[in-house]
Amino acid sequence: MAEMPVLEVSDLRVSYYTDAGRATALDGVHLALNAGEKLGLVGESGSGKSTMALAMMRMIKPPGRIESGRVIVNGTDLTALSEEAMRKARLSKIAYIPQGAMNSLNPVTRVGAQLVDAIVAHEPSAPRKEIEERCRRALESVDLKRGVFEMYAHELSGGMKQRVCIAIDILLKPRVIIADEPTSALDVVTQRQVMETISRVQKQIGAAVILIGHDMGLMAQFVDKVAVMYAGRLVELCGVREMFTRPLHPYASALIRSLPSFSNKGVFHGIPGLAPSLLRLPGGCSFHPRCPHAMDVCRTAHPKLETLPDGRQVACHLYPQKA
Amino acid sequence: MASISLSEPLQPGRLILGLNYLRRNKALAVGLLMVLLLTAFTVIGMLTIDPKNAYPLSVEPKQPPGAKYLLGTDFFGRDLLSEMVVGMWQTALIGVLAGALGTLIGIVLGFMSAYFGGVLDAAIKGLCQILTPIPVFLIQVVIAGSLDKRDVTIYTMAFIVLLLAWMWPTLVIRSQVLTMKERQFVSVAKLSGVGSLGIIFGEIMPNLLPFIAAAFVGQVFSAVFASFYLAVLGLGPLREPLLGNIIWAAQGQGAFFNGWWWWPIWPATAMVLVLGSLALVNMGLDELSNPRVRRTE
Amino acid sequence: MNWKRLIRRLLFLVMVIWAASTITFLIPRISPRNPIRERFGELARMGGFTPTDLETIIASYSQKFGLNKPLWQQYVDYITSVARLDLGVSMNKFPKTVWALLMESLPWTTSLLFVTTVLSFVIGNLLGAVAAWPPAPKWLRTLATPFVLLMGVPPVLMGVFLLFFVAFKLKLLPMGSAYSIGRIPDWSFSFILDVLKHQILPALSLILGTLGSWVLSMRGMGITIHGEDYVTFAEHKGLSGVTIFRDYYLRNALLPQVTGLALAVGTMVTSGIVIEQFYGLPGIGSMLYDAIKVNDFLVIYGVVLFITIVIATLMVVVEMLYPLLDPRIRHDT
User: Fold this and answer.
1) Can you give the pLDDT at residue A113?
2) Above 80 in pLDDT, residue B236?
3) Mind giving me the DSSP string for B40-71?
């Protein structure tokens, strides 16, 4: 039963115009998510994961620019919206959990005020009492006391602040939630708390979640599908089980292989070489300089993201598909 | 096994990166340009004009600007062009002297205070804080007023200005060094066994440079401003054609109402240009030292 | 109310007053000449003083400067008289005491300086905030630069230009003095209007001459605040530009600026001196200027001390009020 995907990204391209030249941050990314699905987006620094998040929220600032592509959430193309319409779409259609909420809350206003203004910005005529009640209930649903409404950001711990951000994000029941490394600044125990919270609220409102990060262990516990990015491109997308047991793309398999495991104690596999500079991407497949399976075609032709018979997607000349 | 080829993108030369940056940081660019032009004016002027003409009874008095006297002459028979050149030179001297010394003292004190901490820190910081509410300018006025008119030279003016101008750079440098002391690169250096001196000059100083530059420009600005104010009140070395002095003399002779508009206008314009360019450079340096701004726009 | 903090701040105040008095005490003793004796000589020569008057002046000065007593004794006398708020007698405007002169000119000065400081702060900071706010229209943001350039036009020069163009050439506003010549001060509406009209140019000179530094500092602050995570998250929340500007950006950027307000009063006062004299307004500035010209020492020192105390007190007040604005500070002791 094919449902209409709640999120569809097609051919998204983003560049940054720096003093040293033009850097290609996203080089034609395609992605689709259904309601309630959880996708993990992994990759090294500079692979484009955070840029993806910002691009989907249309928050790319100069010197960056969305060159082309579409981001369709629940049937609406976000890239075609006016500034004002996009502003309304943020938080109501697509929400963003920031990385490390240490500083994401306004230090001089109360937490409650920051929940309230989120609602007021989208529903200006809602009665004040009702707004306040909704906010307090949102705090409860992330396991915080209703009294947090009156507190200031500096009175909260890191984990609590992160949960406040989650509470803010679910106020308007968005269809897509992007969690950009939400637990990287937290200790393991708090990490678990936050991830559980995200899980729970996501089920409650039936949103699709994109979890961005590089903690494969976290991915394994939380997501349904995993997408691997490299040098601004999506190179593999498959179910989380398959990713760990049988990764196809050479980069993905190198990633999995580099994970420490009990059976292989003391043996570490890295990935030789360095990620390419986004200013000068290698010709052909961006990974070919570091790929142990590189062929001649890899140097010249760019592999497209193909869908395999079992539903997996991979962009590699090792797996050519008929058009 | 495919060979690993690392493609290193060509880095544009540093000069080009610098010029590119100036294109975006217009305040800095314009400010620097103005400073450059003013310096050129002063230097070329000092080399070409006859400094004697900047003093009374050298040329025909009260002449409007014309072919013979490019900027006109004043009531006392001084050629305005010569006055301007010499005045700029002296203003620059006071400004740079007081500014540099003030910044230097600020660096030394601020540094010692932050780096060594303890009683020294408390003393220096306390001293600066207590002296802050005291209206510095008024004290300078009082000092200048107490001196015998004959004792007031450019150098005494610079000294007076310097006396109370070192507090702010000290506090600024101190707070910057304090933040840096705790930052990781210092701890790393210490762990690697780099000695105190090495840390000071190798690690901390380079990061302080933008702040030192901004403090220096700020101090030069204050010094020029203060000396101008003192001169306008008639407290400067009256014989010298300091720009403020010229205006004071012009006011004293009712220049505007007598129709000798050029007399106070040139020094006023020059002062505006000098202070304005310094303010712009300061604004530009502000942007430079804030890395966040450099990435946007 | 945190008593420990208040006491520390009051101690600070005392230290400042002590430092200021010490400095004013030391200044006439810098040069080997004795300017006071010279003044007495001048006064005596000028005439117009009965021998008893002269005696009183000399006595008052001797009491403070105790020129025949050992240095430490002089110092103690001086400090104690300051503590008693006995600032002595004016030489120039005898027999008025320094304190009386201060109180006379205070109302004029306070009104002018209060208004100009507030307006300069508000306008300057707003301009600076907008200048650093990327979503603001480009033309509005480039407006900041010329205002910073205004920093190059100190209030006195501003006064010169304004006076020349607006008052002299265009005859739009009066040329000086506090109110039109020949009027008797009263509380009538027309008099107040007249006074206001006379204050416009001086106020304008001061405001235009001082807002440059607010623009500059606020712009720097704004750039930093704009880069903060909470501003970015506010945008992620889909808040309108105006809301983010007001509640997330401005509120945070203004805080550090407020601490500079007390000092700004000090700068305003020093600029105010020349402006008052220039426009012939009867305030502390004019009084000080006249005193400087004739070396009326006690008046000068009295004014310096008074201004120092005012500034220091303002600083303490602002510091004590700051926790009301910044909740992060409230919980520290």
Assistant:
1) 93
2) no
3) HHHHHHHHHS-GGGGSSSSS-SSPPS-SSSTT
Question: For chain A, which residues make up each domain, given as ranges?
Answer: 7-314
CATH number for B281: 1.10.3720.10
Give exposure, C84-112, as e/b (b: 16+ Cβ within 10 Å).
Answer: eebbbbbbbbbeebbbebbeebeebbeeb
Quick one: pLDDT band at residue C184, thresholds 50, 70, 90? low
In a domain, B204, yes or no: yes
pTM for the model:
0.79
| Contact residues on chain B for A231, CB-CB shorter than 8 A | none
Give the separation between CA A2 and CA A64, rounded to whole angstroms.
Answer: 36
Write down the pLDDT at residue C62: 62
> How confident is the model at residue B5, as a pLDDT?
41
Q: With respect to residue B20, please indicate whether it lies within any of the assigned structural domains.
A: no
Mean pLDDT of A294-318: 82
Q: Do C229 and A92 make contact, defined as CB atoms within 8 angstroms?
A: no
User: pLDDT confidence of C31, banded at 50, 70, 90?
Assistant: low
Q: pLDDT tens-digit profile of C102-128?
A: 888 888 788 888 888 999 999 999 988
Tell me if C237 and A117 make a contact (CB, 8 A cut-off).
yes
Best mutation target among A87, A106, A169, A180 (most C Cβ atoms within 10 Å) is: A106
- Chain C positions with Cβ closer than 8 Å to A: 134, 228-230, 232-240, 243, 247-248, 251-252, 255, 325-328, 331
Cis peptide before A63 (omega within 30 of 0): yes
DSSP single-letter state for residue C331: T
CA distance B202 to B189: 9
What's the total number of domains in chain B? 1
Q: How many helices (H) and strands (E) does chain B have?
A: 13, 0
Asked if A20 lies within 8 A of B11 by C-beta distance, the reply is yes
pLDDT at C51: 63
Angle at B244 between CA B239 and CA B248, to 5 degrees: 75
Residue A102: strand pairing partners: none
Q: Which residues in C lie closer than 8 A to residue A117 (C-beta atoms)?
A: 237, 239, 243, 247
- Domain ranges, residue B276: 85-294
Q: What is the DSSP string of C278-310?
A: HHT--SHHHHHHHHHHHT-HHHHHHHHHHHHHH
Strand runs labelled E in chain B:
none
Token duo for residue C227: 């880069």
Tokens found for residue B172 = 């600024």
pLDDT for res B297:
35
CB A86 within 8 A of CB A71: no
Of A82-96, A103-117, B211-225, the one with minimum mean pLDDT is B211-225
Q: Say what the ipTM of the complex is.
A: 0.88
> Is A61 an 8 Å CB contact of chain B?
yes
With respect to residue B27, please indicate whether it lies within any of the assigned structural domains.
no
In whole angstroms, what is the distance from residue B37 CA to residue B273 CA?
10
Report CA B194 to chain centroid distance, whole Å: 35
> Who has greater pLDDT, A3 or A236?
A236
Residues of A in contact with C235 (CB under 8 A): 59, 90
CATH class of this structure's domain A7-314: alpha beta
pLDDT for the residue numbered B6: 44
Write down the pLDDT at residue A255: 82
Residue B12 pLDDT greater than 70, yes or no: no
Mutate to test the interface with B, among C23, C38, C113, C157 (most CBs of B within 10 A): C157
Q: Is B6 in contact with A21 (Cβ distance < 8 A)?
A: no
- Residue C333 banded pLDDT, cuts 50, 70, 90: very low
Residue B247 lies in a domain: yes
Closest of A105, A106, A22, A107 to residue A65, by C-alpha: A22
| pLDDT of the residue at C38 | 61
How far A78 CA sits from the closest chain C CA (Å)? Answer: 13
